[in-house]
Amino acid sequence: MTTTNEIADKIASEQNLTKAQAKTIVESVFKQIADAAQAGAETSIPSFGKFKISAT
What we know:
Strand order of the largest sheet: 1-2
Number of strands: 2
Order of helices and strands: HHEE
């Protein structure tokens, strides 16, 4: 399992950001995906997946 903190740590080191900056970005990306799903939109990220709330 990979955590938000682990993702942020990797981004921070790869992009020369602080861990706090990278975590803010990661959290923002996930929030945008969740907000789009709540609004009924589908988010598609190639080679990763599609996100949408289903009506089941």
